[in-house]
């Protein structure tokens, strides 16, 4: 499936694989990018590494890439800033455009869009230095989740189970972001749904269930241990699987995402209702990553997945 001919590989031209970058997720991006680079080269693509964290936009322009595969995570790579530069340079790129990337990176704005579209997401509050934490805890209930809205890979996130731990959790998140997101804690199972394509053609891959040690799916358990268990396809009733895939695709479309992405979902234990958590517009492509896992469950190899994503590279702005 998704075989590539030597003619198509050549037609891609000179391809840049952008990874590394300046965000807190640089280490993960290095792993993702190394994998993508090797995969594309194995398919005969003329692929070259480029690290925007160590090289300038002038150097990027000088490389004269025909298209680029974005394997950057977090700020300066997944948040619309790089996408805008590529639009200005006229270099087609993978993934979502400027607006969708920016909105998807902001968990607060993402929630506003989803709620306006009638999609389910946990209740939340936006916190600043003058916020009344006790009132927020009373409104949302304990436990609750506190996180910086512009970071990924669970960086800066704390589960607050006791009121006296709220301030420390706020301070931890506020060190990374100007605003802090406090979110209702939903007790239940954790899932993620990878999506390929754009607009009406966007489709969900098989659902992945994540079972982390003591329910703690943190940075270490995501990328550097083998203690977390993954079940793909997730063991769910067919109707519930279809419903979760439907709302994930709707959530992706509501933000204007395209090319590929991943939507995280919680399934509330008491009534089996799914809630949208966040979207990743440039998901991980490491050996532990979930989009490749979902693709494999559908019979698509890692290498073919990379080619499929590369095929979708384009400029999004018309003019």
TrEMBL record:
Can you state which reaction this protein catalyses? 2 D-alanine + ATP = D-alanyl-D-alanine + ADP + phosphate + H(+)
Which species is this record about?
A: Duganella callida
What are the residue boundaries of the ATP-grasp domain, all occurrences included?
111-311
Active site annotation, chain numbering? 25, 153, 289
Q: Residues that bind Mg(2+) 1, according to the entry? A: 264, 278
Compartments, record wording: Cytoplasm
Q: Where does Mg(2+) 2 bind?
A: 278, 280
Question: What cofactors does the UniProt entry give for this protein?
Answer: Mn(2+); Mg(2+)
What cellular component terms from Gene Ontology apply here? cytosol
Q: Which NCBIfam families match?
A: D_ala_D_alaTIGR (TIGR01205), PRK01372.1 (NF002378)
The alphabetized UniProt keywords are: ATP-binding, Cell shape, Cell wall biogenesis/degradation, Cytoplasm, Ligase, Magnesium, Manganese, Metal-binding, Nucleotide-binding, Peptidoglycan synthesis
- Tell me the Gene3D superfamilies matching this sequence: 3.40.50.20, ATP-grasp fold, A domain, ATP-grasp fold, B domain
Pathway participation = Cell wall biogenesis; peptidoglycan biosynthesis
Q: Which HAMAP family match?
A: Dala_Dala_lig (MF_00047)
Provide the protein name. D-alanine--D-alanine ligase
Q: Any note on cofactor binding? A: Binds 2 magnesium or manganese ions per subunit.
The entry assigns this protein to a family as follows: Belongs to the D-alanine--D-alanine ligase family.
Name the principal localization, coarsely classed.
cytoplasm
């Amino acid at each position: 499936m998704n075989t590539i001919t030597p003619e198509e590989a050549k037609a891609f031209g000179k391809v840049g694989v952008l990874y590394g970058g300046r965000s807190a997720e640089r280490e993960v991006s290095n792993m993702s990018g190394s994998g993508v680079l090797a995969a594309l080269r194995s398919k005969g693509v003329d692929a070259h590494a480029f690290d925007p964290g160590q090289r300038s936009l002038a150097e990027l322009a000088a490389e004269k890439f025909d298209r680029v595969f974005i394997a950057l995570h977090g700020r300066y790579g997944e948040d619309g800033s790089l996408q805008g530069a590529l639009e200005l340079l006229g270099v087609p790129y993978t993934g979502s455009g400027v607006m969708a990337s920016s909105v998807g990176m902001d968990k607060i704005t993402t929630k506003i869009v989803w709620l306006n579209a009638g999609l389910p997401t946990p209740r939340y509050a936006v916190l600043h230095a003058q916020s009344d934490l006790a009132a927020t805890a009373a409104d949302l209930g304990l436990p609750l989740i506190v996180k910086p809205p512009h970071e990924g890979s669970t960086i800066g996130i704390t589960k607050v189970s006791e009121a006296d731990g709220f301030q420390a959790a706020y301070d931890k998140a506020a060190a990374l972001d100007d605003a802090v997101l406090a979110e209702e804690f939903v007790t239940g199972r954790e899932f993620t749904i990878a999506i390929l394509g754009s607009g009406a053609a966007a489709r969900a891959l098989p659902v992945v269930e994540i079972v982390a040690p003591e329910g703690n799916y943190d940075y270490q358990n995501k990328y550097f241990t083998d203690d977390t268990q993954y079940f793909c396809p997730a063991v769910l009733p067919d109707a519930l699987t279809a419903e979760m895939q439907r709302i994930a695709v709707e959530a992706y479309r509501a933000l204007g995402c395209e090319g590929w992405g991943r939507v995280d979902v919680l399934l509330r234990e008491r009534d089996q209702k799914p809630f949208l958590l966040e979207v990743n517009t440039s998901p991980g492509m490491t050996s532990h990553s979930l989009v490749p896992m979902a693709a494999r469950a559908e019979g698509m190899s890692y290498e073919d997945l990379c080619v499929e994503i590369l095929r979708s590279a384009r400029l999004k702005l018309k003019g």
